[in-house]
């Protein structure tokens, strides 16, 4: 028996890397999988349904059930078409994993409006476009699970990724709000912040340094291992948890959350000087 027997999942950006690892694992765990991928390069250029079909072929060869989809997640028509194909094929959708994304890394002062718009369109609007029809169906049919992909680049910041970080921070905000709205309808919403060695990350400085040293990349940061965390979130193993963010990378598995300092609670109209005087209460200790 698999952990996802009888379930149906839509996984976007599942032709390579993490998405492909999620799809193959879910297929092995008894889930029927719609494998969506535009089939483009890391920067979003080009496109072919070939990568999605290859993942489908792997799932079917292993005894699972899957179909390929090549629609563009960043348009409402594309999101609707992905949902429609899933419903036509299996009559339901239990799980949506918004994983599709691109990179157009550049420092803010060198960045272009075109790259800003495209990165936000694929990541943030793409998450909206794919979630919208699925959300309505889940709301009317007893619930489900939605997992949105965020990043420490948005939650904590990273040099040269202002467009990507802004998109991922937006997705985190969307996730927190959806979790609140989804509670009464049985829709559980997770945020996934992965740090895996894939074609999207292989040339990042911290990953290149490991390769240059000849160090083997830890198995904890490999897509097949990180996929186990996605399986945890989307299976009964996670119970009724919702609104949480998991960070899964070579360092291990952790929860990320927004924290509030102890705070200073004046009972009067305070001044800027008083905020400075109460610095240790208002702010977290300096690192």
From TrEMBL:
Superkingdom to which the source organism belongs: Bacteria
Any one GO MF annotation of this record: oxidoreductase activity
Family matches, as Gene3D superfamilies: NAD(P)-binding Rossmann-like Domain
Domain Ketoreductase: 7-203
Pfam name, any one: adh_short
UniProt cross-references to InterPro entries, sorted A to Z: KR_dom, NAD(P)-bd_dom_sf, Peroxisomal_Beta-Oxidation, Sc_DH/Rdtase_CS, SDR_fam
Keywords from the named record: Oxidoreductase
Family: Belongs to the short-chain dehydrogenases/reductases (SDR) family.
Protein name: SDR family NAD(P)-dependent oxidoreductase
Organism classification: Bacteria, Pseudomonadati, Pseudomonadota, Alphaproteobacteria, Rhodobacterales
